[in-house]
Amino acid sequence: MAQEPTPRNLPRAQGPVYLVLLWPGEAGNWEGRIKDAKTGAEIPFGELEELMSWLETHKNDESRRSA
Fold first, then answer.
1. pLDDT mean over 16-31
2. pTM exceeds 0.85 for this model
3. Residue 11 — pLDDT band, cuts 50, 70, 90?
4. 43 contacts 34 by C-beta, under 8 angstroms
5. Binning pLDDT at 50, 70 and 90, where does residue 59 land?
6. DSSP string, 5-55
């Protein structure tokens, strides 16, 4: 049986790539770190709202740079 290629939603070649690590926190909320794959810099966060805010801010920054 021939294997069909899996469509991938990859970022553009020069775009930023972030790895987001999540784990359950002690207070019952999600905690984690955002890691920049290019620089290795890590940004910790204590709640999902912080993660979403950070992602939205960086999405807007990237949109401005590409315009």
1. 90
2. no
3. low
4. yes
5. confident
6. PPP--PPPTTS--EEEEEEE-TTSSEEEEEEETTT--EEEESSHHHHHHHH
pLDDT given at position 52: 93
Which one-letter amino acid corresponds to residue 44? P
Phi, psi of 30 (to 5 degrees): -90, 135
Can you tell me the mean pLDDT for 48-64?
Answer: 84
- Count of beta carbons in the 10 Å neighbourhood of residue 32: 20
Residue corresponding to tokens 């912080």: 50
C-alpha 43/C-alpha 11 separation (Å) is 20
Q: How far is 32 from 16, CA to CA, in rounded Å?
A: 19
Q: Read off the amino acid at residue 61.
A: D
40, 55 Cβ separation under 8 angstroms:
no
